[in-house]
Amino acid sequence: MQIGHDDQGRERVDAVRGDPDHGYTRGSLCPKVNRYERTVYAPGRVLTPLLRAGPKGSGQFTPTSWDDALSLIARRWHAIRAAHGGEAILPVSYAGTMGLVQRNALHPLFHKLGASLLDRAICTPAQEAGWAQVMGDTPGPDPDDVLAADLVVLWGTNALATNIHFLHRVKKARERGAHVVLIDTWRQPTADHVDATHLVRPGSDAALALGLLHVLHGEGLVDHAFLDAHVQGYDVLARDVLPAHTPADTAARTGLHEATVVALARAIGRAKVPFVRVGGGPFRTGRGAEALRAMLALVTATGAWARGGGLFASTGTADAFDASSLLRPDLMPTPRPRVINLNRLGHALTELGNDGDDGPPVHAIYVSHCNPAAVCPDQNAVLRGLARDDLFTVVHERFLTDTARYADVVLPAPTMLETSDLYRSYGQFFVQRTRPVIAPVGECRSNWDTIRALAAALGFHDDVFGKTADEHIDAVLDVPSPWRAHLSRGSVDRAALDRGEAVRLTPPRGAFLTPSGRIELSPAHLGPPRAQPTWADLDDAARFPLRLQPAPALYRLNSSFAERDDLNDRLGGPALLLHPDDAAARDVDDGALVVAFNLLGETRARARLTTAVPRGVVVAEGVFTLAEAQGPTVNALLSQRLTDHGAGSTFSDNRVEVARAPEDR
Ligand SMILES: Nc1nc2c(c(=O)[nH]1)N[C@H]1C(S)=C(S)[C@@H](COP(=O)(O)OP(=O)(O)OC[C@H]3O[C@@H](n4cnc5c(=O)[nH]c(N)nc54)[C@H](O)[C@@H]3O)O[C@H]1N2
Ligand SMILES: Nc1nc2c(c(=O)[nH]1)N[C@H]1C(S)=C(S)[C@@H](COP(=O)(O)OP(=O)(O)OC[C@H]3O[C@@H](n4cnc5c(=O)[nH]c(N)nc54)[C@H](O)[C@@H]3O)O[C@H]1N2
Ligand SMILES: [Mo]
Q1: Confidence band, pLDDT 50/70/90 cuts, at residue 488
Q2: 32 in ligand 2 pocket by Cβ < 6 Å?
């Protein structure tokens, strides 16, 4: 960090740099955090509390004081609670900040209010569910293990955009002779950094995994010694499921050639140390958990786990710290309030409670570090809900996002350089404690300080609200969490953490933390993994022939960083990537304005014709604002349907049709 001073002598961030001594990043930053000072001082930052001064969505506000904003919110929440009960209030928060304290800051206050609970299932819960079904509490392998692999499979991950530090390691492994294969639904940018790319039909990953395993099994490439010692249920899988997954069947389901299926299976079966890195795409489908179970079956059958390989989905460090002193589940009323799924926010804000069955309608939401108007599926339903005059909406934000524009009250939020926190990761094993490097910009307050102020305004005096963020971090670190004792061979090096160093947690190897102590491929309650149709496989393919693939963009983090002109220039506006044949069939030229639509809505974007996208697929990279899209975005075409397990989002499982926009004719 390079700190200077502004003209009033206050400390100011001049530049942000990576830490060359950081054990995982080695000092390299992604393009977004490079120049992070431009986010801190972006012209659009919200610097004071704001009150709505126009219709919802118009973005018209007048500044107000913190005291007035807090007492207005307290008054409204007390009234809503008295009239409809606590469940009429809903906290909405997710990924804007990922630290232990600031991310979880809302829990004690909304438990105390008796508010509806939010199931934050928008990211990768099906993947987590699939992992837990097979591997139990076993943490993921170390991403550094890829360095020793002789075969690396990147399966549904655009590591160049979303996982740059892991890609550095893949490149190193490749320099040492590893063969690197990418399996995806389109030739995304990471394809330029691998030896072979295989394009599969969206949602066909379980079929591919089982088809590959069929070949391994038939050709004697399965590690029976490992299966006998460490695996439950392989025999059932081999007997009941594998026979149907012939190369011909696999080719028909995935779109790959039979010869490719066989060759890929042999490469996996003959590798000494195969390492599979999965991204989120394959699991944001109606059968997401089942897809991961099938992939785990494939990798497990090779015996890779015993040789330093395996399958990496996530480090699984969610339980590394016991944060109950902050989360305070004991403050929740009994019986527990109802649970609302973040993927079904559109439903929750427009239909829930209208028939009186599921509790009251939602009358108030408190949105923090989340931008549901932009990121949730079924955007039109979410926007209809946010536009309700009888919904009292508070948004704690750094910018006037699409969600904030619908707020009755906006509270100013900080950047990560203005807050204390304790960060863990789901991609590697380092943890880090941070303290503010500058004073909050304007009148911004951290999530936790805002919650404390709200608690005071509401008249809540529980001890949890008396502590500062740093005191909470100290308290969490003082608890000897079983996970940490087990995994880091002792506890975290507190002194190093307090100095701001990245400290590594060391995961165990060799033990499978399932009920049976074995990898469970066919537990009694689930049976063996199967390849079943996903949601979009069952939709009307004649009317909506194209499979929509929304994908993260290199120059944006979900909806974050839209404030950065330097990134926006490189990102370009909303675009739909189409195969030239699909475009020609629709009379669409490169650069034409097109409309993509299905039963849920429509969005406008520029067509980009590219053979990187196979026929029958349309790719939409990035999360854009309503202004950028000049109307609903691609999220208007994503359904609120959930995954098989984990109640996750099904972003990769939707159909659309594309046509030239009428105004382009
Ligand atoms: N630059 C940048 N980095 C990010 C993010 C961002 O928005 N921008 N988002 C962050 C977040 S919150 C997350 S969860 C992660 C996201 O990380 P991931 O969810 O892993 O996203 P991607 O790396 O794009 O990988 C998804 C890939 O899956 C492919 N895919 C989609 N459906 C299927 C399918 O059915 N089968 C197969 N085989 N592939 C499929 C897509 O084409 C895409 O290439 O990244 C994080 N990092
Ligand atoms: N089309 C499409 N939709 C997607 C995705 C996609 O790839 N494509 N990805 C999906 C995935 S995997 C995820 S995880 C979700 C993520 O969706 P979100 O959880 O909404 O994450 P962001 O879009 O990054 O928005 C976070 C907001 O938090 C604000 N913020 C940052 N720091 C703080 C803070 O300290 N305090 C407060 N109060 N606010 C803060 C930022 O300004 C930003 O507006 O999006 C999902 N939606
Ligand atoms: Mo995510």
Answers
A1: very low
A2: no
Average pLDDT over the chain, rounded to whole? 95
**For residue 191, how far is its CA from the centre of ligand 1 (angstroms)?**
14
Indicate if ligand 1 lies below 6 Å from the C-beta of 118: no
Mean pLDDT of 542-551: 97
> How confident is the model at residue 484, as a pLDDT?
56
CA of 120, nearest ligand number: 2
CATH 3.30.450.40 at 29-118+320-418+436-489, yes or no: no
Domain ranges of the chain: 29-118+320-418+436-489, 141-313, 538-660
pLDDT of residue 508: 64
Helical ranges in 526-585 per DSSP H: 535-538, 565-571, 580-585
> At residue 114, what is the residue type?
G
Could you please report the per-residue DSSP string of 169-228? Answer: HHHHHHHTT-EEEEEESS--GGGGGSSEEEE--TT-HHHHHHHHHHHHHHTT-S-HHHHH
The answer to whether the CB of 413 is under 6 A from ligand 2 is: yes
Is residue 19 within 8 A of residue 437, CB to CB? The reply is no
Q: Which atom of ligand 1 is nearest to the CA of 551?
A: 24
Q: Verify whether ligand 2 is closer than 6 Å to residue 398 (CB atom).
A: yes
pLDDT value for 377: 98
Provide the whole-model pTM.
0.97
269 touches 104 (CB < 8 A): no
- Statement: residue 489 has pLDDT above 50: no
What CATH number labels 141-313? 3.40.228.10
Assess contact for 328 and 111: CB atoms under 8 A. Answer: yes
Distance 157 CA to ligand 1 centre (A): 5
Are the CB atoms for 547 and 618 separated by under 8 Å?
Answer: yes
Q: What is the pLDDT of residue 665?
A: 64
Question: pLDDT of 23-46, one tens digit each?
Answer: 899 999 999 999 999 999 999 999
Other C-beta atoms closer than 10 Å to the C-beta of 21 total 10
**Residue 398 three-state SS:** coil
**Does ligand 1 have an atom closer than 6 angstroms to the CB of 267?**
no
Mean pLDDT along residues 71-80: 98
Please say whether the beta carbons of 43 and 183 come within 8 A: no
Q: Domain 538-660 maps to which CATH number in 2.60.40.1080, 2.40.40.20, 2.30.42.10, 3.40.190.10?
A: 2.40.40.20
Predicted confidence at residue 490, as pLDDT, reads 46
Element (H, E) at 100: helix 100-104
